[in-house]
Write a structure and sequence with these properties.
By secondary structure, this protein is mainly beta. It is built from 8 helices and 39 strands. A 6-stranded antiparallel sheet has the order 29-15-30-36-33-34, with no helix packed on it. Strands 18-17-19-25-21-22 form a 6-stranded antiparallel sheet.
Length: 527
Amino acid sequence: MLVIRRSTVDLLSQFKASGGEILVTGMFPEYVDGKPDPDVINSLKQICRLITLNELKDVLGTVLPPVFTLEGTDNDLVWTHHRKVANGGIIQLSNTSRLKSTDCRLSFTTPQKNFALWNPEDGSSMKLQPENDGSIRLHFDAAKTWLVSYGYASKDASFGKIYQIPGEKTEIIKINGNWKGNRADPNSLILDFARYSTDNGETFSDPEPVIGIHQRFRDKRYSGNLLLKYEVQLAEIPPKTALVIEQPQLYTVTINNKNINFEGKDSYLDHTLRALDISGTLEPGMNEIILSLDYVAPEPANLDAYKRYGTEIESIYLTGDFGVEVVRSAEPLTESQKNRSGLFVRKPVHSITRFMITGEKDLFNGDLVLQGYPFYSGTFILKNTFKINDNPEGNAKRYFISFPSFEAVVVKVRINEKEFAPLLYSPWEVDITDAVIGGDNQVEIHLTNSLRNLLGPHHHPGGELYGVGPVSFTGNPGWPSNTGGEPDWYDIRLKGKPRLWSDDYYFIPFGLLEPPVISALLPDQSD
């Protein structure tokens, strides 16, 4: 610190006189109460010990011996938090790495008793058996957290099981090849580009981002008639299709020159996203969906809510029973923001330029984004088989299925019709011992993703972003990008390349990026 208060110096002097130890790293203050006072600063130096930051850990261990220590390869990845309770304590230990697992040894300065290990994922507890030297060995998967209690803090623990470091599993088989698959929710296609007309359809602009059209007319303070023409290419007509519009009461809607009466109470994902079955109105080739409205430019300073917000035009969606064929970009994104950090598992970010509605297939292998489901949000079901050559009944092996690389939020596993608890976090592994049989086994994987690929942001040249705010969906400058961007990005786009906008669409993967693995743990390796 550059400045210190005289009252703080007095408190430090009292602390030192009472037997306290004062350590300083870096530099001493130069001013007292904002003024030079060399005598007070010198008196402060007399009662303090100046050390380097590299010395801090060893010096602290000398002047204030720790209650516990944690040792092991990459032990610096594991952060700890200790809470004392009457006649005991609780330690939270969290592996901060999303990439590395580690084995650590927890040792206590003074002997403790009645150890318990708690799993915060489900509240279960196990007995901890210290080594001969009193230390406790713990294994941390990537991003794993354990709680260790001792003394009175372990009074409510259930000791039906003793914790042991897991042994090395033996890989039996990778489930390769095609998977039979089907979606459990409607597929989706977002239409976020449109041609606009302000002369009742006499002329239309080239396709522009709808959010840019809105910003253009907001900045121009335009109010009046506005037509938005959305275009979608069909290779074949889907069995069922719905049109989804936010606030459809604002618009007059036509599809291929047919008037659409947008009534009913059906919705998609949110009650404000109203859905209407438009099966029978689409045709092979290019289709036109035109929304006509009286556009009102927002007046941000107006106290009347209607005038303050004006009309906010939006992207529209098609949902239903179809696939979406993609055309990949000729200039794909090479690296995204998250990939550049080195903190996350490296995964591709897909760059797409165009889409076309097609039929669906029933065999899949790998990333579903490129196999008909770039905008899909929901659960996808994949089915396959694997073979166990020995007879699991009667032997002491334990069998596991794990997922080395995939992209989903929730993974649910079903083996031979037996369903297991959903996987929500690392390690992405299920003990399937109670379900497997000798010979062929049926495996069913339910993958549920997020709204990320449906709602975006799709056009930020950072690809997959660390943080997302309103401007991340535009080319505007501002938080959380804080660099680049232009207020008139929608005009710059017509002539050049905005810094924070790309016409390409960016998607994260969805599906099994590597084959699931069936492995076994031998009897002397398990607990």
